[in-house]
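Predict fold of Rrf2 family transcriptional regulator; 144 aa.
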Amino acid sequence: MQISTKFTIAIHMLVAIDYFGDQETVNSASLADSIGSNPVIIRNLMSELKHAGLIDTKRGPGGIKLLKPLDQITFYDVYLAVEKNKDELFNFHEHVNLNCPVGRNIHQALSDKLLKIQRNFEDDLKRQTVGDVEKDVVKAIDAK
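Predicted 3D structure, encoded as tokens:
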């Protein structure tokens, strides 16, 4: 199971949009600078976050705005917005030996357990908000 870096980059983006939004116009270049990434990657993620209803973007001096407070945006919202291979976290190997008793039965024995793990993972994502991350970031900034 692997979640792409798009997930953590998207959370970084949302926190930065909120943190800097009152002080300056936030755009893909400023986000790319904060993240250490290419602005094209940031713009692609912005498109996904916009499509999910989490941000709004305006060309020019309008910048990027959040459409919800961070404490109302869950990790699951971000996960749904940016992860493309989320239907099944676990994938089975395809070419088992059906003549082998283990090979013949492994998928059936394993699938319900993996589905339960995936549901628990998604439930955990629903309990965490981007606002929780922002509070920790601000606390770390203020401590210095």
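The mean pLDDT is 91.
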